[in-house]
Amino acid sequence: MTDEAVELRDIVVRYGDTTAVGGVSLTAGRGRVLSLLGHNGAGKTSLLQVCEGFRRPDGGIARVLGLDPMADHDALMPRLGIMLQSGGVYPWATAGEILRLFASFAATPLDVDMLLDRLGLRKFERTRWRRLSGGEQQRLSLAVALVGRPELVFLDEPTAGMDTEARHTTWRLIEELRADGVTVLLTTHLLDEAERLADEVVIMRSGAVAATGSPAELTAAAGIDLLEVRAEPGLVPDGRLADFKVVETTPGEYAITGSLDAATISDVLGWFAGAGAQVTAVNTRRRTLEDVYLALTSGEKVYR
Amino acid sequence: MSGVFAPAPGRAPMRSVVASQIRMELTLTARRGEAVVLALFVPLLVMLGAGLTEATNVPGDDRLAFVVPGVLALTVMSTAFTGQAITTGYERSYGVLKRLGASPLNRSGLLFAKIAAVLGLIVVQLIVLAAVGVAVGWRPHLEMLLPALGVTVLATAAYSGLALLMASLLRPEATTGAATLIYVVMLAAGGIMFAAPDLGTAGWFLLPLAAHAEALRETLSHGGSVPGAIWLSLATWAVVLVTAAARKFRWE
C-alpha cells in the first residue's frame, strides 16, 4: 500500500494483436496535476481506462488511492471524479437533470447552481443533452466529474471541442482544484495545456513513456538550443565555427545551433568580433515543451 | 474563494442513490410517452380482436376470460423484455452505462432501479388494459389480485434479467432485432391469441409467457390459485436470469 494517488507498474494493454500500452509505469502524487501528453493512439485513454477500472490490464499492477480499480470498483467510485472523452449521458435528459442526478449520488455534493454558473451552463439548464454543442457537453461532463467533491479526478482531454474562453475557464478551474488539494490526472495533446497546468508531464509515444518530468525539467535538460545574432549580411563562417551549424536565415540574421553553453556562446560571439562584424542583437532561445515533445514523438531532434 | 473544491468524497445512502436513479428512469420514460402509448396498441388490438370476434379458436366458452389475462402477460413481456432490452442496448452505445459505472451507483443498484422503474410502468399499463377489458365485459376476481401481482413481479424480474443480459452480450442493433423477433414469436406461439400446444407442466417451465398467462387466468378469470409449478417456474427464471444479468453486466 502506498500513499500515492495513482501508481502504475509495467501496465500492458492489448487489443487483440495490437499492443496499445506496452509496459508503462508512472506515479501521481497526491494533490498534484499529472498530464499524459501524446498523439492520438499513444495509449493515453487506454491507460486511463485501466485507472478507472473499466479495463483489466493484460499485465502489470494498478493502484488508485491504494485500491485495485477492478476489484475495489464500488469502494473507489465515490472517491473519484471521472470525465469521459465523449458522450455518456441520456440524450433526452436536460443538463440540470443530469447534474442533479449525479449530485444526488454523493454524500456531500457541491452546490449544483454554483457549478452551473461557474461553467457557464446556467442558460442550458433546461436544454436536453443532444441539443448541446460539443463544448457545452464537455463542460457538463466536467461538472458531473466534480460534483461529488472527489479527491482524485481523471480528465480525458478535458478541453477538446471547447472555445478559447471555455478553455481558459476550465484551466482556471483545474488550477483551483489543485489549490484545494484535489489530485488531477489529465490527458491532452495540447502542449500549452500541459505546460500551464501540470506539475509533472508524462510524454507517451506508441504505448510507452518517452519522457517524464516537470515542464521546466523537460525543457531545461535540453539547454539552450538556438543562438540568434544580427550583424552585417554575407558573413561566411570559417573553421572556428565548425562545431556549429550556422544559417543566415535572412540577410544579416544568423541562426546558430549546436552544443551551446556560456563558453561556446562566447566563442561564437568572439568569431563575429574577430570578423569585424557590427553585432546589433544577440538572442538565445531555450527549447520549449513543444520542441521536446516533437523531438521525442517523431523520434528525431527537431529545431526551429 | 479557495476551498470550494476541497475533497469531501462519499456515497449518499444507497437507498437514495437508487431512488434518484429510479426517478431518472421514470422521467425519461414519461418523456417518450408517445412510444409508451403506441406500445399498448398491439395488446389492445389483440384483446379486442381475439376477445370479441371468433377470429381464433380459444379453449372454453368465455373468450375474454382466456384472452384478457394473456394480453396482460404479453404486455409485461413487451415492456420488461423487448422495450427494456432495446433501451438498455442504446444506453450502452451512447455510453450512458459507462458514465453511470463511473459514479457511486453500483451495478446491483442500477439493475434494481431499472427493474423497479419498469415495474412501475407495467402497473400503469396493466391498469389501462384491464380497464378496457372490464369495459368490454371481462369480469376479474379482484380477491385474487395479490397472487396475480406476485407472479407479475416475478415475470417482470425474469424478463428484465433477460433484457439486461442480452443488452450486455449483443450490439444494440442485434439486441433490437432479437428482442423484436422473440416478441413476435411469443405473440404468435405463446398461447395468447389461441391455445398453445399443450405441453403440460413442462410447457410452463419452457415458456414463462405461457406460465404467466395461465397463472393470471387461473386467478383473475377463474378465482383459483396459482399452480405451484408456475410459482416454481417463474421464480426459477427470475433468479437465474437476474443472476446471469448481474454476472455478465458490462458498463461498457
From TrEMBL, chain A:
Keyword Transport listed: yes
Keywords, alphabetical: Antibiotic resistance, ATP-binding, Nucleotide-binding, Transport
Domain ABC transporter: 6-231
GO MF annotation list: ATP binding
Cell location: Cell membrane
Main subcellular location of this protein, as a coarse class: membrane
InterPro entries for the chain: AAA+_ATPase, ABC_transporter-like_ATP-bd, ABC_transporter-like_CS, ABC_transporter_ATP-binding, P-loop_NTPase
Pfam families: ABC_tran
Topology of this chain in the membrane: Peripheral membrane protein
Gene3D superfamilies, alphabetized: P-loop containing nucleotide triphosphate hydrolases (3.40.50.300)
Protein name as annotated: ABC transporter ATP-binding protein
Organism: Paractinoplanes bogorensis
Highest classification ranks of the organism: Bacteria, Bacillati, Actinomycetota, Actinomycetes, Micromonosporales
